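Q: Hi! New to this. If I give you a protein sequence and the SMILES for zinc ion, can you show me the bound structure?
A: Yes, paste them in.
Q: Okay, here:
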Amino acid sequence: MNLITEGAITFETEGAFYNPKMLLNRDIGVAMAHSLGLSDYLDALSASGIRGLRVAKEAGVEKVTLNDVSPQACRLIEQNLSRNGLVGRVTCSDAHVLLHEQHFQAVDLDPFGSPSSYLSAASRSALSYLFITATDTAPLCGAHLNSGIRKYLARPLRTVYHREMGARILLGLAARELARLDKAMQPMLTHVTDHYVRTYLCVIKGAKAADKCLEKMGYVEHCPSCGSFVLLEKPQPGGECRYCAARTTLAGPLWLGEIQEAQAIESALNWKDLSRRAVKLLSTCASEIEVPMYYDHHSICERLHITPGKIDDAIERLKNSGHKASRTHFSGLGIKTDAAMPEVEAAIRPA
Ligand SMILES: C[S@@+](CC[C@H](N)C(=O)[O-])C[C@H]1O[C@@H](n2cnc3c(N)ncnc32)[C@H](O)[C@@H]1O
Ligand SMILES: [Zn+2]
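A: Thanks. Here is the predicted structure of the protein with zinc ion bound:
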């Protein structure tokens, strides 16, 4: 028997999938479940059950359902529940079916690879919250273009800001799936860590709210030559870069609305058991300005043939010239700002 301890749970993994590298993902999930005060939570793809077990025990969520299509995984979940003195409902269904049949206050999707096939049923099932993990970063971020188009009904683009591109392509599909059911979403926390995207959505019922939500969809016109980008409401055929005249390419449709909600994140930051890494990640997410995409400090320096100075100095210069600017958790080299490329270059160039 191979017993593992994670958080407040000691559990067995024999015969089910368990990835210790997802610890940070689960830690933050527990903090969010606790701060949102959930009372009813579905771990739709449970494997060993560790995610749902931790939400039940550490976040104190009363009604936890743990589902997996594998009978072997379900037996293991039953054992892991009783080993930890917990009561939970275990279901052995195809998640697509379960999500179409039943409603839950919060639905958590943590599949192998892409969550896209589950999103339609999960959007129906989730009454208040939808949490999604996607580990298929190659299709999401533009490295596998056709797969990205098939899975997310959008064209991703491999750019220096591909991590945020991936998050917004996923959010774009979620917004459209929810809208089909007259539901809107409000992202509370979105992070791209290691090789996965994770997002926590508040789900709001109402056709008007859904319409408003869809207004936040759009496109990114990107210049592969100078790295500048423009946000567009409607798609336009590839044009000419306004800064270097090179031919631009288009990504989308994707979510251009807010992806972080500082208040929700700060409330999760109160969770006593967060690791230092989680605190750093959440704090950066909370302080990110709400401007889609970011510039890459080093790529710009390389193109301008200048030695990179401090990113924080460039951010200060942008702020002093009246722009919004911040770091981003997506990349240690990233600068988020509402300034255009020439102003960013001026802020990066040594005085
Ligand atoms: C990535 S693992 C889940 C990991 C788990 N959430 C954790 O944090 O450790 C995906 C699980 O989904 C299950 N699965 C795959 N397809 C499914 C389906 N259609 N319905 C329900 N479970 C499914 C697999 O048996 C596997 O245990
Ligand atoms: Zn250009």
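A: Residues 16-18, 22, 26, 45-48, 50-51, 67-70, 73, 94-96, 110-112 surround S-adenosylmethionine (ligand 1) (CB under 6 Å). Let me know if you'd like me to explain how to read the tokens.
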